Amino acid sequence: MTASWERRLRRAEELAQRWPFATEALQFYVHVARFQASLQDALRGSVPVLASREEGFVLRSASPLDHRLLLRPKFAGFLELVREVAPPQLATAADALRSTPEELWEALWDGYWRGQALPDLEVEGPVLAFFPKAFLQPYAALLAAGLRGDGEGDALSGPGVETSPVCPLCGAAPQVSVLREEGHGAARSLLCSRCETEWRYKRVRCVACGEEEAGRLVYLQAAEWPHVRVSACQVCRRYIKEVDLTRDGLAVPVVDEIAAIPLDLAAGEEGYEKVEPNLIGL
After folding, report:
1. Are 131 and 100 within 8 A, CB to CB?
2. Which of 28, 136, 145, 204 matches a 20 to 30 Å C-alpha distance to 81?
3. Could you give the CA distance from residue 137 to residue 141 in angstroms, rounded to a whole number?
4. 127-183 pLDDT, tens per residue?
5. pTM of whole model > 0.90?
6. What residues have CB less than 8 Å from 172, skipping those under 6 apart?
7. CB-based contacts of 6, cutoff 8 Å, min separation 6
8. Distance (Å, rounded) from C-alpha 144 to C-alpha 1?
């Protein structure tokens, strides 16, 4: 998993040089990813290895509240980092959360973890959602890796998995769609926005509503990024970005998804809403 963080950081720094319009966003992501890597390393050995994945959303059987004494001081440090390096709206929110009672921090983690409404902390909803998502990602990924027993591992597959619109392990929405070479074509998987588990998904299917009529599924792409495209649905008007590793084997899906900002802007102009915002809010 350490190698995975290193790949992300190298790719973000590379794309920040290549695509000037994404430099600010990627520099912020680098700060967040470095924190996430250090947090995951600090938690390693202190979180449980879950025994099975026979029941759906098994990661919810563990809770960040079980490790509140470990997480509280780390969250304080995370808020300080965001206050120092984030765009103004996030920095202001981080400053407000620093003076919020720690019990409300825990309510924020718990609400996000269980997929419930977040507490009213006088911070705008989309901005508030960034904090538990970014902070708990490495914790959730560590739990998921222990559950899979493989560090990163192959995409999950099996009955019902390839049509599941949410992560089979934690129930969160996918962050990005990924295409990988398989046989004479490409296999599709979805990458979880919370625990980073990948699961196989049907190649022609909306990730939000399950629409499978090819004529109702559209793709937005630009010549500058031949390996990244928007996969959108005309029925539910939702979209996800898709990173094609058969076109660029050096791409890192979570990083390239963030960097291709103009594709999100184009999708928004066409009236599509993203299935799950990324860490920079797009």
Report:
1. no
2. 145
3. 6
4. 999 999 999 999 999 989 877 765 555 789 888 899 999 999 999 999 999 999 998
5. yes
6. 115, 166, 192, 193, 194, 195, 276
7. none
8. 12
Look at residue 246 and give its three-state secondary structure.
coil
β-pair partners for 182: 185
Angle, helices 23-43 vs 125-148, to 10°: value is 50
The kind and range of the H/E element at 221 are strand 217-221
Alpha carbon distance 205, 254 (integer Å): 21
CA dihedral 69, 51, 139, 107 (to 10 degrees): -60
Q: Which two structure tokens, joined as six digits, stand for 190?
A: 């979805």
Among 233, 241, 227, which residue's Cα sits nearest to residue 186? 227
| CB-CB contact of 58 with 50 (8 Å) | yes
Task: Identify the CATH number of the domain defined by range 161-274.
Answer: 3.90.1670.10
Query: Cα angle vertex 125, ends 120, 129, to 5°?
Result: 100
| Eight-state DSSP code of residue 156 | B
16-26, pLDDT tens digit by residue?
A: 999 999 999 99
Q: What is the full DSSP assignment across 58-110?
A: GGGGS-GGGGHHHHHHHHHHHHHHHHHHS-HHHHHHHHHHHTS-HHHHHHHHH
- Helix 68-85 vs helix 125-148: crossing angle, to nearest 10: 130
Is residue 48 pLDDT above 80, yes or no? no
The token pair that represents 91 in the structure block: 């920095």
Domain ranges of the chain: 2-148, 161-274
